[in-house]
Write a structure and sequence with these properties.
Length: 891
């Protein structure tokens, strides 16, 4: 069949640069076809169908190029046996589906040794494709080479399993494919299956072993397309002559599972195709800067307080969970057919079935299984018992048991949720299990946890659109539960010495674990995370039959689970008013101990690198001072002037002095403490903050004191960009910073201009709304101003300039960051050191602070990023109850 471009291509022979002309003609034709396919995607065509259309466009391109190359440029009307040549699509392209910017995997197949003509044909085809900017995975091999490699190299065998004729000598292609499939059908499939599963495990480790990371890899991540492809490849290896392994898949999966398989595949193809088109290249990671646009393109809309992007991402993670369940279900069937090599998988221990003392449960080669499909129907309580047995015997779940649970979820009725024995079993797993993170994760992935605890079910797969949280809400919570278990077992003594010491003093460990389980179930609620969470926790505990005293403790912990973190990071813990207010909130040492352990686990489980020793130090200070108050000890204000008497004296005689307490290489201090003493003046703190910012120092805390003679002492706690004490790795850098600070204190340098800050594409994805809280009640001696907005270098200095312009002096500053959002708190006094009166100037102050929070963020050049509103970490009762006036919505 003659291609429509045959005439124009033939005319290219007479042009000065044949290859460039051909590439130009084919490029225009190919791009027009791809544009039409993209329009079909926008119009709602299913993802798999769109992928097939992209593949058909590539087929059309290659057919035209092949005809021109073999019939016009290098014709051979009667080729010799050695000159026979065919073009075959392999890999994903061979399967007949393509993403917009996927590689074209091609095999140039010849009977045996190469000839000058076959080399010329392959070379011209490849160079034209490269000239068009296409990525090509290619090989040129003889039939014998292909067959030999496929026997020993499982990657080659995988690619050839999906071989599909494109052009050239069809007889040569058919003979090769028939021979290859016959060999595969005769071969032992177990080594291939084991290789594919090992390859999957390695891929997961490389892209992130956790299925629920909030920036997933659509192709290679856990629960992504490659996991479904692996099932395809296994199916093809068992029935190489069956199109796409359909016969095997139909045999191994139930009709419901097959429908789930097809729906998941279509969804992931739509996501991957949109992702390629959004970025304009082959991108597989669904990062923040793509998620909002992805949700818009796929037709998601916000609902209530849940924005479209979060609803879409929740759907993504539910699909990822379904993919995991499908993999387990298919593995179960394969093992039943004894087609997996038990010796090749280290997790399987050859051996007989072993009874475990519970009727219906057996250990099958190192994993917990069930004796039949009716075990749970006869006794639904065993749905929960199964997981307690798994924990007791430290066993993974056999795919048969996993599938049996997923198919029995309808047995979880209201009566089972209220069954005292079911509650006891659940609490044993949660609070007394050996490995609650692993066991509860299994329960979650089967769907049982959300069925048994409906409050949990509403947060499964839920995301928060911000850079602070690395995992979905359910995964974060399960990791926090695992961290408490590790603390209790003494595994985190170095990281959390205080928590390890007090965890065994907690009187009601079950209440702590219940509160940890339920602490985030209010996310996305109409009344706010804390109030909705407390309401849902009470409902869940009452249904579980928990006694009233324990219910009150659980509800209190859920409602106040942010309080300790907020007081430690946002308030001046050297201020007796802060300690007294926190002690009033907590009430007694038992609540204090329990809240501390919950808070530590909650922060550490947010994501890698979120917990650090500075946060630990702040919380230890707050805990120790509050505990001392409970013991009846007097709580006094710390005086930073008393810490640096020599420095203050030097400043009085010399005008300014600087001193640093840098940690040594083996010191576990979290920050470098820098003290600057100078004659007080308006704007001093802002000038010092600007010098710190200019030197790349991150200020995480600051205190200010002024003596009666006007000598001011500013003490900064600083880190470098890696979160280490500033100067630990580069002492000379610290020396330069000290000189810079002394010059700023003496006014020897001009104020540093606030430069525009270019932010990354990921940061540009977030519309961070500014919030300003002015609190006149927390402290008897100062007004507390808390500001929140997009984090950037120089923000602290800019905010300090505004406060100085309003004739407010900063007594202490407390700096925290939550991903893309900075939260800074200032204790301010007037120019005479007295508590200012909050009055008519409040609106002007708020407006000026908001303007600072909104300014000088420069979007990255290139592709536009449409920002979406960032999810705000819910404020605790600390700010909510003491707010004079929150900032209005931005204009």
């Amino acid at each position: 069949m003659t291609h429509p471009l045959a005439g124009p291509l033939a005319a290219a022979v007479d042009t000065p640069d044949v290859r460039a002309t051909v590439a130009g003609l084919l490029g225009q034709h190919y791009q027009a076809a791809r544009t039409k396919v993209a329009a079909r995607l926008t119009a709602g065509l299913p993802g798999v169908e769109v992928a097939r259309l992209y593949c058909a466009a590539a087929d059309d391109l290659l057919l035209a190029l092949w005809q021109f190359t073999t019939e016009v440029l290098y014709p051979a009307p009667n080729p010799t046996e050695a000159e026979r040549l065919s073009l075959i699509a392999v890999g994903g392209y061979g399967r007949g589906v393509l993403a917009p910017f996927s590689d074209l995997d091609l095999l140039f197949l010849r009977p045996w040794k190469t000839t000058p003509r076959t080399e010329s044909v392959a070379e011209f085809v490849l160079y034209v494709l490269w000239d068009m900017g296409l990525k090509v995975g290619q090989s040129t091999r003889s039939v014998d080479d292909c067959l030999a490699l496929a026997r020993s190299d499982m990657t080659v065998r995988t690619a050839l399993l999906e071989a599909r004729p494109l052009a050239g000598d069809r007889a040569l292609t058919d003979t090769f494919i028939d021979t290859f499939r016959t060999e595969v059908a005769k071969a032992d499939p177990r080594p291939f299956i084991a290789a594919k599963l090992d390859e999957r495990d390695t891929r997961h480790q490389k892209s992130g072993a956790v299925r629920y990371r909030v920036e997933p890899n659509v192709k290679d991540g856990k629960g992504g397309m490659r996991d479904l492809n692996t099932l395809f490849w296994i199916a093809r290896s068992l029935a190489p002559d069956s199109p796409l392994g359909a016969r095997v898949l139909d045999d191994l999966l139930t009709s419901r599972e097959r429908r789930t398989f097809e729906e998941a595949f279509d969804f992931l193809w739509r996501v991957r195709t949109h992702l390629h088109l959004i970025v304009g290249r082959a991108e597989e990671k669904l990062t923040f800067d793509h998620q909002a646009e992805m949700a818009r393109r796929m037709g998601w809309r916000g609902r209530g307080d849940e924005p479209a992007v979060e609803r879409f991402m929740r759907r993504y993670f539910l699909v990822a969970r379904d993919v995991g369940a499908l993999t387990r279900a298919m593995s179960a069937k394969l093992e039943a057919r004894q087609q997996k090599s038990t010796l090749s998988l280290s997790r399987l221990i050859p051996g007989r079935r072993r009874k475990l003392g519970v009727e219906g449960f057996v250990e099958d080669r190192g994993r917990l299984s069930v004796t039949g499909t009716k075990v749970f129907a006869a006794d639904p309580l065993k749905l929960l018992t199964l997981f307690r047995v798994a924990d007791t015997h430290d066993l993974d779940l056999h795919p048969d048991a996993f599938s049996a649970v997923t198919r029995s979820l309808s047995l979880v009725t209201p009566s089972l949720r209220r069954d005292p024995e079911a509650t006891r079993t659940f609490l044993d797993i949660l609070a007394h299990g050996q490995r609650p993170y692993r066991v509860l994760t299994l329960m979650n992935e089967t769907g049982l946890l959300g069925r048994f605890l409906p409050e949990w079910g509403r947060i499964v797969g839920q995301t928060q659109f911000n850079m602070y949280h690395a995992y979905t809400v359910d995964e974060h919570t399960l990791q926090a539960i695992g961290i408490i278990n590790d603390i209790a077992r003494g595994k985190l003594k170095v990281d959390h010495p205080l928590s390890t010491g007090i965890v065994h003093l907690i009187g009601d460990f079950e209440a702590l674990m219940l509160a940890m389980m339920l602490h985030d179930v209010g996310k996305g609620g109409d009344r706010g995370q804390l109030e909705d969470g407390a309401f849902a926790a009470r409902r869940a505990c009452e249904r579980l039959g928990v006694d009233s005293r324990r219910i009150e403790l659980v509800v209190w912990l859920v409602r106040n689970h942010l309080a300790l973190s907020d007081y430690a990071q946002k308030r001046d813990v050297s201020d007796p008013d802060t300690i007294r207010a926190f002690a009033d909130l907590v009430g007694d040492p038992e609540h204090l101990r329990t809240l501390l352990v919950l808070t530590v686990a909650d922060i550490r489980a947010v994501g890698p690198g979120v917990w650090n020793s500075w946060k630990g130090q702040l919380m230890r200070d707050l805990y120790d001072r509050t505990e001392a108050l409970f013991r009846g000890e007097d709580v006094r204000r710390d005086d930073p002037l008393a810490e640096f008497p020599d420095l203050v004296e030097r400043a009085r005689s010399a005008g300014a002095a600087v001193e640093a307490l840098p940690p040594g290489p083996d010191d576990d201090a979290a920050t470098t403490r820098i003290a600057v003493a100078a004659h007080d003046r308006s704007g001093l703190f802002a000038a010092l903050a600007a010098a710190l910012s200019g030197a790349g120092a991150d200020v995480v805390g600051a205190r200010v004191a002024t003596a009666g003679d006007g000598t001011a002492l500013d003490v900064f706690e600083v880190q470098d960009g890696a979160g280490l004490p500033y100067g630990r790795t580069e002492p000379r850098r610290l020396k330069r910073l000290l000189a810079r600070l002394e010059a700023a204190a003496r006014r020897d340098t001009a104020p540093e201009p606030a430069a525009s800050v270019e932010i990354s594409r990921r940061r540009a994805a977030f519309d961070v709304r500014p919030v300003v809280l002015i609190d006149a009640r927390t402290s008897d001696t100062a007004v507390v101003i808390e500001v929140s907005g997009s984090d950037r270098p120089g923000l602290l200095a800019d905010l300090a300039r505004v406060l100085s312009a309003h004739k407010l002096s900063i007594r202490s500053a407390h700096v925290a960051s939550f991903g893309e959002r900075a939260v800074d708190s200032f204790y301010v006094v007037d120019t005479r050191g007295r508590k200012p009166v909050v009055g008519s100037r409040t609106d002007a102050l708020r407006a000026d602070l908001e303007a600072v929070l909104d300014q000088r963020l420069v979007a990255p050049a290139g592709r536009a990023v449409t920002p979406a509103r960032a999810s705000v970490r819910d404020v605790s009762d600390l700010s909510r109850s003491r707010t004079v006036s929150p900032a209005p919505e931005p204009r």
